[in-house]
Predict the 3D structure of the following.
Amino acid sequence: MDYYEYYREELFARQTPYLQWIKENEKRITEKKGKHMRRLAFSSCTDNTADIVNGSLRGGIRDDAVYIFEKKGGAEQPDAEAEVAQAFKDNEDVRIVYADEDYRGSLEELYGLEDDGTLYRGAPWFKPDYSPDTLASFFYIGSFFAITGAMLKQGVEENLSIYELVLHAIDMDRKRVAHIPKILYTNNSLDGIDKLEGQGVAEKKTGQAEGLVSVIIPSKNNSAVLEKCLNTMAAKTRYDDYEIIIVDNGSCESEKNKVNEIVSTICAMKEGLEVRFIYEEMPFNFSAMCNIGAKQAKGKYLLFLNDDTEIISDDWLENMVCSAALEHAGAVGAKLYYPDRSKENGCYLIQHDGIANMGIGPAHKLCGLEDRGNLYHGHNLVTYNMIAVTGACMMVERGKFERAGGFDEELAVAYNDVELCFRLYKAGYYNLVRNDVVLVHCESLSRGQDESDEKRRRLENEKQTLYHKHPDMKGRDPFYSPNLVQWKKDVNYNVGYLYACDREVLPVRLDDKTLRTLPKAHKNKYIRRLTGESRSMLTIDDIKTDDIDAPHYEAERMVCITGWHVIRERDNSLADKALLLRDADNNDNIYILPVYPQIRKDVAKLFESEKATSNTALSGLQVIFNRMALAEGSYEIGVIAVVGNERRGYIQWSGSTIDI
């Protein structure tokens, strides 16, 4: 294969991560056969089971058999039957088994590339494990599932639809349902991919919107923001049965007096509203402040709310109560928006829509995305079960909160909400986000963003504390597929394929013989000038030495260098490159690290007018390595490149250094 063909293939691969994921994950697939299973075709989850069975099965339904329902307009994968059989074999309590699915479409439809007339697989739908509130929202079970004969027979006798059959078979018992986190079915087209099938069809189980809600608001020296929060709550909240408890950990005297004035004004504005102001000087500890408020609360439901939130809909509180009242519900969360100033194109930007426990740790999903359209099968539209929700707006029924032990005060600032949600989930409850409960949130306005080195270290320490308390939850989230992105910051739900540049590489010290063969420019501080200007252009965008999104948990030991390198007046598809690290105290102490292609469309645009400088789309640099592989010191970053059969290499030092 010549260089250009390799370049084109690599460029295609960089733009089609799911196709690369398929190659990597389906190498193991062979056409295995399990026990023989009967297939039943259906068109919609509202189809009647009796009609389907009477039209397809002769000889009746066997209680001990397994029946696979396949949606028309697609096909199962070769090992689907064997995978289903194994799922039933692994757990005798299982009555329903479902799996992931994907779609066929053109390159333009799936990947935004020029269409070549061929249909490709794409748009994978990696589903969560059993999620009762999601299933009540729409039929997320999808196009392929299997059921025991005994349950199917009941469905036919009771004249149930497919949707009703699944709900009846599971009956809120997570032991009865198994999710196979593998793609076992491919839809023949993208038609209906944005449709939430069955939405509004199932009779949702909701609790009664009744009972006192204690709204607990930690706050300090933030009277103007607190006033806006309370004013919008009093003006826009339709649900009347609530009290407010403000917990202040040490405002100055003027701010304290201002809060007392605000409380008086709010109470006068809303007749019968009780507002208590608890003042206790102490270091900031969100968990302790929430627990103090909970002990003073009179309500059946506890709503923990940041003072930098604003109410924008009148039904938010009653909707949260309806979910919190459900027997199976743990923490109930809301969708949060960034403030008006970030509203673009008439559409709010999402700040939070649930927390996923990724490999790199807890992460807010859909953060920074426009709340427009259907984001990954309704994650922004309907109620979804999540492993955790943010403490910026979280409701828990009081008894469940007390049985869980309240907030863990060892986690003073971060991850205290996640830790509580972990305990609720382990106790058998399901945490959930209601997308019809929406607030505006001026994120971290009260205590500032976690941007300083000290705050980042504290954040990392609290994350370690979280997993020390819950080692079984490291990298585990039943509501976030292991096939989705785990080791990068990813707010959406993208396939978790790691390219070579995402993986750790090993620095190798160049020996004396190799050093002598390198171009002179390698040992000089400045670039060798060719035809009056440098042909080798190197930019280092970022150097991270902690909190690296690398595939392991010792992220603080990693280094990540990103940037780009282009050789002007050359075909860059012919270039072999490596990263160089030169010891500032000893220029002969040089390490070399492999560089794998990374797509940089922005760089390609920079050089699109230079016809002699071609194929620059894969000029990106990203190198991740363990800092323990190098001796302590300061290292200058450079790049060495060789183009095709040219005898002279191109070497450039960036001037950027990294301290190890």
User: Anything to note?
Assistant: Residues 213-473 form a domain with the Spore Coat Polysaccharide Biosynthesis Protein SpsA; Chain A fold (CATH 3.90.550.10).
